[in-house]
Amino acid sequence: MLAIRKASDRGAANHGWLKSFHTFSFASYRNPAEQGFSDLLVINDDTVTGGQGFGEHPHRDMEIFSYVLEGALEHQDSLGTGSVIRPGDVQLMSAGSGVSHSEYNHSASERVHFLQIWIVPNVRRAEPRYQQQHFSAEAKRGRLALIISPDGAEGSLEVRQDARVYAGLFDGSESARLQLAPERHAYVHVARGSLELNGVLLQAGDGARLRGERELQLAHGTDAEVLVFDLRPNELPQMP
Q: What residues are designated binding site?
């Protein structure tokens, strides 16, 4: 079964320096029907103007990753990490027992557009850690590249949960298939462009819950960038 979450139905917030769209309930956006899916709790589509960002703030017991689509995002945290995240980079911060961080637009004039995504961990109060890896456009072109996994397979970042995240770029005749194990759920988020998922057209910002599907088919993309989440067969996130 495939259930579409249209981009136009997402929560929206405009703070001037920040424009954000919330796939699931977040901050002041509350939708009883959208409280996450499986272990996926947050997908925020954020655009931050030059020189602005999120000041230092704490997190605990959450797997948080950022995926930059345009511009550059500057990260600082209480672990002593300082980095700049650009398109192709994936940043994963395991908050564990507690970490504080800030995220700012690295440019004083150009905007940064990125996704911030939260996955509920399978353990509480673990040691905080930071990971960052670059996945080239070539590695994602016309295929689904594994970027996050429980065991760091294929050079992916290691998440504390039974979840796998794939990223792909599709245009024209490019296509890909992903087999799902029995009883798994999946979530697909179109970061930009458009493409067909199992014959259904999705546009930028659209998402889709998949339950009971054994295969995902991605095809007929138009400048499409997509994230695919292979998830446990739970309906809603639950802390361990």
A: 57, 59, 101, 103
